[in-house]
Write a structure and sequence with these properties.
Blueprint: H1 26-51, H2 57-69, H3 78-96, H4 117-125, H5 138-163, H6 169-182, H7 189-218, E1 224-227, E2 234-239, H8 243-253, E3 258-262, H9 273-276, E4 281-284, H10 292-295, E5 302-305, E6 321-324, E7 334-335, H11 346-354, E8 366-369, H12 373-378, H13 380-388, E9 394-400, H14 409-417, E10 422-427, E11 441-442, E12 445-446, E13 448-452, H15 457-471, E14 480-485, H16 489-500, E15 507-509, H17 518-528, E16 531-532, H18 536-544
Helix pairs in contact: 1-2, 1-3, 1-4, 1-6, 2-3, 2-5, 2-6, 5-6, 5-7, 5-16, 6-7, 7-16, 14-18
Bound molecules: iron/sulfur cluster (SF4).
Amino acid sequence: MMFCYQCEQTAKGTGCTVRGVCGKDPEVAALQDLLTYALTGLGQVAQEARKQGISDPKVNHFTAEALFSTLTNVDFDPARFVDLIKQTVEMREGLKGRISGASFDHPAANFTPASDQAGMVAQGEEHGLTSADYSDNEDIRSLQHTLLFGLRGVAAYADHAAILGYQDEAIWAFLHEGLAALLDKGQDLNYWVNMVLRCGETNLKTMELLDKANTETYGHPVPTQVPLGHKAGKAILVSGHDLKDLAMLLEQTQGKGIYVYTHGEMLPCHGYPELKKYEHFYGHYGTAWQNQGKEFPAFPGAILMTTNCIQKPKGDTGEKIFTTGQVGWPGVPHIWADENGHKDFTPVIDKALSLPGFTEDEDKGSVTVGFARNAVLGVADKVIEAVKSGAIRHFFLVAGCDGAKPGRNYYTEFVEKAPADTVILTLACGKFRFFDKDLGDIGGIPRLLDIGQCNDAYSAVQIALALADAFKVGVNDLPLSMVLSWYEQKACAILLTLFHLGIKNIRLGPSLPAFITPNVLKVLVDNFNIMPIKTAEEDLKAILGE
Ligand code: SF4
């Protein structure tokens, strides 16, 4: 029986056992479990190789790609997992051949995958999250799984940075160390608490590296108005998170009479100077990932999924959607990179040219993006003055993932009910609950500031640290409250980063992770005073002391 509880929408709040709520079938679940098992073996060998001075760039980046494939809503194609498992074991054996005097006792470092998919599925069924690979102690197992899900999140950000040519040996070393440690049943609770906090520390490093990669390659985001309507003409919709895919597509669609639109987490891309310079990079279409079932069939052009979150294509979507990077859906055409990382998007362009596109212009208003750290800190004096004069009473970081649960209306209500002398900082796709609301401004400072994608949590941290510095207080003493929503494993990694930074009093919803046991939750409450969201009114009242 499959068992997966890595995301917020897990069945009955406890675990998907028959089929994933996300659409993952038991075969893919078993193959993901086997890939994870194989990666722990690769981690053990790579860690030993590193001790002997060998760090292989191909193995490092591959480890991140393979882990990224197991994130929620990334890859649903069993054939891709069969390849990844084979490659993992080939790399493991290749590395073994380059090191001397080491032997590996753990079976994960020595196992041979079955010769076909069915055999691998059977092997994967033996290595699931409830298997004897993990500790019998439920609290230790909870932390082992927290580490695994955190590593998956780190891997996603490390992959995005590596695609732009930015790598950090310390990040690769921790990914391998974490994987190597994962099935070690001889460690105590303190060891695992320390490992998950170190995962948060590594994630901070990774988000910092990705911020550097994005801003050095495409410039610092600047406040930019993004139309929510469309122009008459052929159209391509880009979803996911990858800036380089978008840049290559914009380059290749120049002069072809095609307008390019963003969907979901790609919205903040409009703020980057080296992306916004393309005149045919027009606007934003639709909202967050979970609405693609109704938004994609209505889009009259081709669609490119660059990363999570893909769902089962509905209506005619299957005939016009393409995947790239780690994303996969059986039968959906995939655009692969060549050995230099270049991608030829001709099939996507040809598809867009064969579809009707939008027949007329339509104005649906606009939103403003681009309030990343550089833009916000550029007006820091104004912000600090507004706080000192009392014009700004409080900041709320209302951020994180969106999802399908009705409980997520909390975030819309929270923003709507936040008093007029408060400012909302936001990032990631949770903002689609309120991104088009006109909240006005406070002395020229917009009350709703869109910092960017989920990885731009780094930018939010930098803004908070700069404010704390300006006011000569700790971050926890700022008039700033974090009201977060989570869905998948990148959010887990970010949460671990906030714990590593010692951030307290986070409100988390719409529900707490199923993989956190009551005892582990108690540790988090005792140390960080993390709390579940209540109602928007109750939480606002508690925060503002009204
Ligand atoms: S990723 Fe989430 S929805 Fe999908 S199987 Fe796992 S817990 Fe269930």
